[in-house]
Write a structure and sequence with these properties.
binds zinc ion, four-stranded antiparallel sheet, eight-stranded mixed sheet, alpha/beta, Alkaline Phosphatase, subunit A
Length: 551
Amino acid sequence: MTKILVVGLDGATLDLIGPWAESGVLPNFARLLKEGSGGVLPSTVPPMTPPAWTTFSTGTTPGRHGIFDWTRRKPNSYELTPLSATNVEAPTMWKYLSSRGLSSLVINVPMTYPPDQINGIMVAGMPAPHWDSSVVSPPELFHELKTSVPTYELYPDPGEAYSRQGVESFIQRLSRVASARVEMWRELRIKRDFDFEMVMFNGTDTAHHALWHLMDPDHPQYDPNAPEHHRNAIQNYYIEIDGYLGEFLDVAAAEKRAVLVMSDHGGGPLKGLIHVNNWLLQQGLLRLKGSIPSRFRYLLYRLGFTPMAIYDLLVRVGLGKLKKAVVRGRGRSLLTSLFLSFNDVDWDSTIAYSTGNVGQIFLNVKGREPKGTVDAADYERIRDQVRSKLEQWRHDGSPVVEGVFYPEEIWTGENLPSAPDLLFLPRGLEYFGFGEFEFGSNKVFESLRRGISGTHRMEGIGLWWGSGISVSSSNTLIDQRLHDLAPTIIHLLGAPVPTYMQGRVLLEMLVEQREIETVEFEGEEPPDAAIAFTEEEEALIEERLRGLGYV
Ligand SMILES: [Zn+2]
């Protein structure tokens, strides 16, 4: 049995780590690459934090665990609701390990709020709204942790870096959050000799979102006159993580643990936004009401009176604080009643719409949507039509989309029916496909002026090292997928792999070629009703997701 330490680095990419390790600024990553196995780890479609981390933690694909985004359509509605761990419909690996008497320490993994009760300790990650006892399992531990790790923060919000004045404090915050995360791990691991340990850092991803343009001379928002430590901020953060990695590797070597350093997806520059509902409107697949108020809002939309334009205007005239009250208030503020939104959509003649964050398209299906128009008999024909329109879509002479997927082509599992009907990846993932409740802009393509400048890529990392892992001197690529990690970890820990997991044990990478055992494991029934966040918590979660460029 080999104990394991997993280091999660949200969004970490070999595109940055590789060259920096080579040049000598990331000596511990270089050590991992030289002495370990693994390499690129493909993300889920879409490459988003919630489906990807949940795929990792449950060893199942979104078709089985049911998490496709940060949000989900409310049943029989066109509105979205934020998701939490109570919506994950497959047991996590640490829940399963508990049933085998194996102990776990799990710190800040996304989509683990509210935390599982496990044999061990969990400090949950996003979407935890506040740092309080609801985040910790067992909850009694919270007060002790508040005193022993007083600087602990749930999440380094990139939003503050979207104004030039905020960059400095965001960079400091990145550091502070990472160091407190390591402190939390040091503090908790003293309590017990855990079989499975995991600590997750969000900073790699939030730094990409907020600071990519400062680093990348090819980025449209690049400013050669920005201070040098701003231009180097992403690299400096990786250097800091590399320092902690040195400690992780030393501890693991001393305790004969295997180490997995992994990310849920990669990262790269973001050049602009695609407002998918505007495209659907152009294609006649989404239609608006003919009522006077809706036509009035459509006129304003045509004239450019849209949330993004107003946001820009408010920021320009220095009313940044006011913008929160005005923009994207989800019908909660007076001015949003002036913006074109889903309230103006004529659902009785709409065929397709987009909600969510990376190119998810839903057909307006009879019996599933409140005002469905697509009959079961026409479903496949219409879905094929939408796919072919997506494939033919051109912008500046080039294809917009590099892949269109039906959920059943990429996943299996009982939650396929709640998946979007079509998913697409914008070419190179340099654009973000956005399906909004309000029509944020009147353009299909919008270039970025400020705010988010980096986003996700399909290629994450999965670097294995240490006890039980065979050395591949040339960094041989292991054909690994996110849902293979949990079965491999479980096998390393000497336990049979539960049959609900959809991944495989990466046996070719292990020193010991022991036979793989399997076992049935049902877990507990998921709670009937998802925990309802309070309105205040829901607003806070939305605010955070907006910081990442979502919602
Ligand atoms: Zn992520």
